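Usage

Read records sequentially. Each one opens with the input sequence:
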Amino acid sequence: MSELGAQGGLFTGERLHAGDPLFQADLARHVFAYQYARELARGKRVLDAGCGDGYGTALLAEAAAYVVGVDREERAIATARERYQRANLSYHVCRLEELEGLGERFDLICHFQVIEHLPDPLPFLRAAARVLTPKGQLLITTPNRLLSRIENPYHVHEYVAEELHGLLTTVFPYVEVWGVWGNEKVMAFETERVRQAQRILRLDPLGLRRLLPRALVEWAYPRLARLVRRQIAPEARENLGARDFMIRKETEGALDLFAVCHCER
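and closes with the structure output:
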């Protein structure tokens, strides 16, 4: 399969798109956060900051008064515009530190599985604070570094709960960090995914992959991501959905961290 994936979306092994059964478990983990946020979005003006192909943005638009999805990648925005069309939904190419250029303010901002890609997240966080309404909220999800047992070349920095809380409180005075947990089926999938990936990584005991040119890494990563998932039994990777995830206040054993940021109570 080409990098355009099953439904025409940009596939990098990191950016997900709807419709690929190999990545159903990964997509469910992302969709869960959007489904949770959808209830908070009812009747509100919402920004999806780092929307990718737009599947989550469209979920938010089912409940919100108005939703804007932004991403820096023109190709991702073109796919989102083509695939998801609603009267209360729009997509724009926009860098995350330039949100004020949208000329709008929002009651809720979602920033899901993006902050780990930012070399310096502070310009985005400050921009988000400026475009939030006074009692607005910023929601963030990101992998919990304590549970990340496979290196990801697209992640600049992964966080533990205390570190993420400390970063966010430099901009937002009120921050809570919770955990996104998976049930037994999810954790079984994760264990097998890690096992299969580590089998491949054992072929490079000296870590020479870290010396490869970036272009070669970006060519290889999506192919290896597919290979890993093909080694997992279909019933273990295809029968997972958003229903298999939950939010708890505990973070230590969580797959993802879920942060809620407020400028005012």
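Summary fields computed downstream for this record:
- Helices lie at 24-40, 55-61, 74-83, 122-131, 161-168, 184-201, 214-230, 234-237.
- The chain has one domain: 21-262.
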